[in-house]
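Dear all,

This email documents one entry for the complex benchmark we are building for the journal club exercise. For each entry we list the sequence lines for every component of the assembly. Then comes the predicted three-dimensional structure of the complex as a token string, followed by one or two observations. Please use this as the template for your own entries, and keep the labels exactly as they appear.
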Amino acid sequence: MVSDVVIRFVVGGSIVSAFAIIGDILKPKSFAGLFGAAPSVALATLLLTIYSKGAVFAAAEARAMIGGVIALFIYANCVSYVLIRFRMPALAGSALFTLLWLGVAIGWLLA
Amino acid sequence: MSPAYAVRRRSNMRSDFCWAASSPQSGLIANRFGAAAGGLFLAFPAILPASVTLVEKHEIEKKHSAGLHGAIRGREAAALEAAGAAIGSIGLFGFAIFVGRFAGRYRPSTVLLSATLIWFATAGLIWRLRKNRMLKRLKARL
């Protein structure tokens, strides 16, 4: 179990850093914002899941990911809106709306 | 590598760490609660709070070095980053559908690589369309 976590951390970290470096290099900076929703964690996790639990389990996880993506879309738009409209500090706004993400994602799961 | 880039890269590495640290979490949740619950957390916004905070901080520092306050500009830049992530999440939707459909049928490396390209192409296209629409609006006002 611990080695599984370590492997996920290392593999996840490598893929995340690769996407982050690409995002840093690309211009303009508005395009680099796309990499805030890059499938870095999904790639690392699905890759490890395919090799540990099989492709069918990974496919089920990917289908369930759709609910998380919908929640992420709503979350990112709300964060963008409140930062502009209400001039909330970035950390406060983004951390607060994580609860919104959880609510939408869990609602999707239970629906 | 310029000193300014080195400083930015070091502070970005903190947000990379947050995201890397979230990588085991979806696996642990899947182990405990099943694929449906674990799959949700593949799209958990672990990095966005860190990245919008960093973007805001960098913009404020840039304005400070020019003798300006920079708070409003910092929040605008952070809002743009979040808006970019919203567009990226549409691409992520295509990624999830593709992997969900084809993961069991073809080689994993091919499926994941193709899904990543689909994410990039979808998000890039929507970004481009949005940018063109904004440019047209700006030209219409001038």
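Observations: Chain A touches chain B through 75 residues (CB under 8 Å). Chain A has a mean pLDDT of 85.
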